[in-house]
Amino acid sequence: SLFATYASRFDRVENLVSAADPTLQRLSEETGETVNLAMPGPKGVVQVAQVDSTFVLGATNWADVEVPPHCSALGKVMFAYDVIPLPTGRLERRTEKTLGSRKELTDDLDAVRERGFAIVHEEFEIGLDALAAPVFGVEGDVVAAVGISGPTMRIAAHHDRLGELLVDEAGLLSRTLKRKVTHR
């Protein structure tokens, strides 16, 4: 039934959010930036949890903001690991730095897989940067992405360090999810 489908999806989201909470809190303490957990949804990427930035500048509640996945670090992770379908047709250009062609996007997604994390540098809005890394489920598929976002002036010089931090934390969360399932 449709209700059972929704109920099981709700349980999955709840389980993921509670398992991810320590990860999100650690990332928040370490970076001070806005931290998000997202899952694939019918229209792309759905924000399921957020820890707000400790700074006044850069504190955005992303839950209700429609961000095209091609200019979102969380969205790029979902694209890179085939969790959501690639867009067809023209890509909406939000800024002059937004990836404008399918080729630019697929090249960028190759880089995401190679590095292990996605970077958005002023592609959604000038002055805003974001990074995200994949969270793997029991089957080895990507079930979510964890990301941070904040002002370019605070984040741009630290992409590598922040990306590695995200990969480490997302990896820990992936292992936690695997343990939860195998120890039932």
From TrEMBL:
SUPFAM superfamilies recorded for this chain?
Answer: GAF domain-like
Give the residue spans that cross the bilayer.
none
Superkingdom = Bacteria
The residue ranges of the IclR-ED domain are 1-184
Its BP terms in the Gene Ontology are: negative regulation of DNA-templated transcription
Any one Gene Ontology MF annotation carried by this entry is:
DNA binding
What protein does this entry describe?
IclR family transcriptional regulator
Organism, by scientific name, is Brevibacterium epidermidis
